[in-house]
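Quick one, probably user error.
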């Protein structure tokens, strides 16, 4: 994007936001909540129920990494009582949107207090329309892939709602507590599912390296195209080294995210590796019939 175009967008956000009169929240009104993306939005809805009015900026099946805020988003932020964000440089669009909106809402960073994974590569790659884009982030922002971290998000949401709406605090806390129990059960379920997979087969291929937390907590190795040195497509050498790794580690599954460009992993998974699999190993690659994503980012 050109700088001029960027300034133009920010300018229009400012105009859109400042054109509004901003009344204080009346006692009978719902708590106005903005969540930056759908997973946080889901948590917020569960904790807030019908006591909140929720707007999620980046909805399901969309990619927060390439999101361009709209003037309506600045208006939503300006009106919000509470803004829920992931942090750790996940929402690249956030700072300029917050500034443009002039919001005075409480901005809660939900990864605060979570057990964070340092990224030795200083970031990860996204493949958008066949292009590799480096997302620089010294700490891996995909922290919700750890269920114990997801619980921290939920606790932070409940605390934030209580601070903004003390009257309904006990309800927020009760709904959060019930959901925390569900997350505890989910954690147990995941561990049991993993136990059923032979240890040496706990290898999967993904399009974007967003699963370090899942890897850490549940002992699966995720292989993703990495180390891409060009601005454009994954280089032949990178693809070849990934294919070699997949063969050596005998990846058991390929997970094509609903929001990522799946062509690269499909190319890697279906062509060279399945040929080698047919020849020398019992490895078979499959796509989930229902590729329900673990992440939308
Ligand atoms: Zn990213
Ligand atoms: Zn990501």
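Nope, works fine. Designed sequence:
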């Amino acid at each position: 994007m050109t700088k001029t175009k960027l300034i133009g967008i920010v300018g229009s956000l400012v105009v859109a936001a400042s054109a509004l009169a901003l009344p204080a929240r009346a006692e009978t009104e719902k708590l106005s909540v903005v969540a930056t993306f759908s997973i946080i939005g889901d948590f917020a809805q569960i904790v807030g129920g019908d006591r909140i009015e929720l707007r999620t900026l980046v909805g399901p099946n969309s990619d927060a990494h390439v999101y361009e805020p709209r003037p309506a988003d600045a208006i939503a932020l300006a009106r919000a009582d509470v803004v829920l964000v992931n942090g750790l440089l996940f929402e690249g669009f956030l700072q300029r949107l917050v500034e443009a909106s002039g919001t005075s809402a409480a901005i809660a960073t939900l990864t605060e207090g979570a057990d964070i994974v340092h990224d030795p590569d200083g970031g990860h790659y996204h493949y958008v329309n066949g292009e590799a884009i480096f997302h620089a982030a010294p700490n891996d922002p995909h922290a919700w892939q750890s269920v114990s971290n997801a619980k921290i998000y939920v606790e932070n949401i409940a605390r934030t709602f209580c601070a903004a709406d003390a009257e309904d605090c006990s309800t927020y806390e009760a709904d959060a507590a019930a959901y925390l129990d569900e997350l505890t059960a989910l954690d147990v379920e995941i561990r049991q599912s993993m136990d059923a997979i032979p240890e040496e087969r706990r290898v999967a291929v993904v399009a974007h390296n967003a699963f370090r937390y899942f890897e850490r907590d549940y002992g699966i190795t995720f292989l993703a195209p990495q180390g891409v040195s060009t601005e454009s497509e994954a280089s032949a050498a990178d693809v070849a080294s990934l294919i070699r790794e997949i063969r050596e580690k005998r990846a058991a599954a390929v997970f094509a995210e609903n929001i990522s460009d799946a062509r690269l992993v499909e190319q890697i998974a279906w062509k060279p590796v399945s040929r080698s699999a047919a020849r020398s190993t019992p490895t078979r690659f499959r796509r989930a019939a229902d590729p329900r994503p673990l992440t939308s980012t």
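DSSP finds nine helices and nine strands in the chain.
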